Amino acid sequence: MKTMKILFSAILVIFMLASCKSKWDKTQPVVENISESVYASGIIKSRHQYQVYSKVNGLIVSIAVTEGDTVKKGDPILKVLNETSELNTENARLSAAYAAVSANTDKLNELKINIDLAKVKLANDSLLLFRQRSLWQQQIGSLHQVEQAELAYKSSLTAYNAAVFKYNDLQKQLNFTAKQSSKNLQISTTMSNDYTVKSDINGKVYSVLKKAGEMVNTQAPVAIIGDASDFYLELQADEYDIARIRLGQKVLITLDSYKGQAFEATVEKIYPIMNERSRSFTVDARFVTQPPVIYPNLTLEANIIIQTKDKALTIPRNYLVEDAYVLLENKEKRKVTTGLKDYQKVEIVSGLTAGDVIIKPVK
C-alpha cells in the first residue's frame, strides 16, 4: 500500500509539472513583412447603377424588359397610360400644321398681288406727274392739273407702302405663329414621351420593381439598371479611421460568395461628408482582381492597407501584456516599443531581439 501511494504521488507530480510546462507557450520574434490596415464593410455596386423613376403618375400599360435583359440608352423600360397626352399632342400637331407658313401662302400671294398692282399704279401716276410738270413748264395745261397729278402720285405711293407693310406684317405674324405652334408641339411631344420610361445608360436590368396594371408615381423607383461588366466597391469606413485613408491605397476584399479567397482593389474616391446615423464615411474602391461572377449588392469585408514595412521584427499580438510589455522565458516582464499592427502580429521596434524567447501570458 505504501508503495502504491508513493507511485501515485510521483505520477501526480509529473502530471502537475507537465501541466505547468504546457501552460507557458513559447515563441521567438520573427523578421518578416507586416502591414497595418483599417477595417471597412460594404457592398458591391454596378458602375453607373441607378434607380429608374417615372416622370409622370399613372397606370402602367406595359413593361418592355425583365430582370437580366441588356438595354441600350433610350430603350423603353415601361409605358404609362397617356390617352389625354396623346390627344393634346395630336391637337398641337394640327395647330402647327395649320399655322405653318407653307399653309398660308395664299394669303401672302394675295398681298403680293396687291403690292404689284400698287407698284404699277405708282409707276403710272409717277409718269403722268412727270408729263404734267413738263407741259406746265411749256405753259400748257393748268396748275390745277399738276396738283391733281401730284395728289394721285402721293396717294399711289401711300397705297404701295401700305401694301408692302401689310405683306411684311403678315409674314412676321405667320412666322411667329408657326414657331409658337412648333414649340407647343415639341412641348406636347416631350410630355407625351415622358409617359414612356427609358434607360439612361447602356447596361443590364437588375430589378423590375413594378408590374403591368399597377400605379406608378414620381416618388417610387420602377427598376434598377447598371453596367453589366464594370463593378466597384462602396465601403463604409469608421470616422476614427478616415483620416488615415488616402486615394490609391491597396484594399484586400473577402466575400461570403468566395470563401477562403481574397481579391485586391484600390481606393478611388473618398466622400468628404460623414453619415451622422452610422458615424461613417463612404469610400469607393475599384477592383484590381475581380471575381469571375459577381452581382450588385453582394456584401463584403475589406482591409484598407494603411502602410507596410519589410523585414520588421514581429511577435504574435496575444503575446503582448498591457500592449507594452512581454514576458521573457525567465518570467521577467520587459517593456517594448511597438510599431505597426495587424490582426495577428505586432512590430517590435525596440526591447527585443530575434534571439529572445518569450512566453504567452496566461489569460
TrEMBL record:
InterPro entries: Beta-barrel_RND_2, BSH_YknX-like, MdtA-like_C, UPF0194_transport. Gene3D superfamilies: 2.40.30.170, 2.40.420.20, 2.40.50.100. Residues 1-20 form the signal peptide. This is Multidrug efflux pump subunit AcrA (Membrane-fusion protein). It comes from Chitinophaga niastensis. It comes from the Bacteria. Residues 53-222 form the YknX-like barrel-sandwich hybrid domain. GO terms for cellular component: cell envelope.
